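User: Structure tokens for both sequences below?

Assistant:
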Amino acid sequence: MWGGRKLSSSGSRFLGAHRSAFRGTQADSPRLTTSAAYSKNQLSWTLQIKPSVFSEYRIMCFKSYSMSFACLNRLKSYRLPWTRLYSTSRTTVDSSEVKTFLALAHRWWDEQGEYAPLHSMNDLRVPFIRDNLLKTVADHQPGKPLSGMKILDVGCGGGLLTEPLGRLGASVIGIDPVDENIKTAQRHKSFDPVLDKRIEYRACSLEKIVEETAETFDAVVASEVVEHVIDLETFIQCCCQVLKPGGSLFITTINKTQLSYALGIVFSEQIAGIVPKGTHTWEKFVSPEKLESILESNGLSVQTVAGMLYNPFSGYWHWSENTSLNYAAHALKSSMQEHPSPAEFALKEETEELRIETSTNSGVWGTGGDCIL
């Protein structure tokens, strides 16, 4: 069904050709009735076909996105099998990335395997998250400094970062679009009764839980994730929406430089085999400048950007002033009142009335001269 469109001449010829083809087969096949109703703003079709013989006409190709069928009053609607299903919500999950991580879902806790660099990265990223969060609280419990805080770990994988945050006392929700990753994470945390109570895992994408978790978390962590999403701006918007006012967003990722291509992809994946081939796509890497621009446009102020370097020979990470390869960023969501007060609503209404009045007067005066207000 199309709204406000008419059939093109090519479309008419297409239908005409198929009508003539059907006339030649009507003696051998059940009757096919086609009716079309035209209006100025809408074109609707109704095809009446017996379900048992529908397969005879499956080779027909229509350019419409969806069509309605009446099949003996039992089939209300039907979507052609080759038609792509569009969702009203945008997704940040790349299906090709999901396949890559699905194949390695059982290797997350192998400290000598493909995820060895992520295990050793905890030596930097866990204190980075902890220390910056402690700046926002007056006091904390010894041994459980993050007690009382609620953290969302986006793209948690097998829980390599989720568990250390839980051990620091935080209540953590880890989400990942790969179901096998979540199963691995749940199985591993089940061995620790304390973590089993503090950590919850969900197999879903970030945008799927935005509405139910709006302004819920004290911190959102996206470590080694943004270089895998297909829509970075939407991803950052979702991170901002689930954060409480004044909450923290922590990101670790890879800079988009020639050096990151040479070392992060050519050397790490193709030569040394530190990372499985196909793990990264250089076009998805993001520079600190671009990331900061996106963060600030969503009401997040960047507090810290620090370079991270990995030594493949020692297997350890260390901080650096150089951000040309890996880097970590910490941003705060504005704690200002996000919803207008009654006085602000009244001022907005008065401003709108003044704008309408001015627009009306401008229409009376004409456009022949300039008016300075």
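Moving on to the next sequence.
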Amino acid sequence: MDVYARPANNSALKEKPADSKDENEILPPDHLNGVKMEMDGHLNKEFHQEVFLGKEMEEFEEDSEPRKNRKKLMVIFSKVDINNDKKIGAKEMQRWIMEKTDEHFQEAVEENKMHFRAVDPDGDGHVSWDEYKIKFLASKGFNEKEIAEKIKNNEELKIDEETQEVLDNLKDRWYQADNPPPDLLLNEEEFLSFLHPEHSRGMLKFMVKEIIRDLDQDGDKKLTLSEFISLPVGTVENQQAQDIDDDWVKDRRKEFEEVIDANHDGIVTMEELEEYMDPMNEYNALNEAKQMIAVADENQNHHLELEEILKYSEYFTGSKLMDYARNVHEEF
């Protein structure tokens, strides 16, 4: 099997330096909440927690008190269990996933309002490409007034190759987000599509094209399994690194074969990847619900009881609850 170089997983770098705040405000995020794949083509490791916890996700931290986390999880269980039969079925979980996904969308809309104001200083309700370009370069350390003056006078900008490449990619996305008639001016709604393409059908297609472009090795605009699971060349230095790489390949193989490749023909098309990436796809949400139930369904009744969710809390919340069995009876 051929092995090719893969892009670095920038989305794994959760901690950002304080001075990158402005840059984060105007750059499209690599990590999209409630979407199964990152913008750089890596799998979203927190997807299950994001679509199960929604805004409550931040409350389930490793150093949180297990007893408090149990109570929070019990409250969530009761909310998902809308028919109050003390168990969660696939339809109930599907409804909950769609609700949490919509919650992520509303959060993106609210954040977009703030970010739009940051790049629309004159408050005219539109942002030109040049206005955005100035703010972006200022966030990269360039002098904002000097850049603005040079752009105004059509003077050449001395920009390093890496920054220029990012700018070129952003301009492509800017064009895509600019609804007809194209004027290179984005209003607040178009700017939302620019920052969060997962919530715009046209931009979703563009995002999928970008991901396939990054992973596609033979230029046929489709993905084979070997292309999807390709590893960075020469990065394995010890057994621990080898184990991480092995797990990475295993996870991607499973996702490719069982989820993304809908017709199981060994090829993922743009259409299949688009369906997979669409956060508001109800069919995907139902499949996801069934998978989530299967992970913890120890008694094989195709439902989740509270004890099962508590036992597999790390999968649902990222937080491991110790002595779950004894404590759940104490809570009752």
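User: Anything stand out in the second?

Assistant: Strands lie at 127-128, 185-186, 223-224, 267-268.
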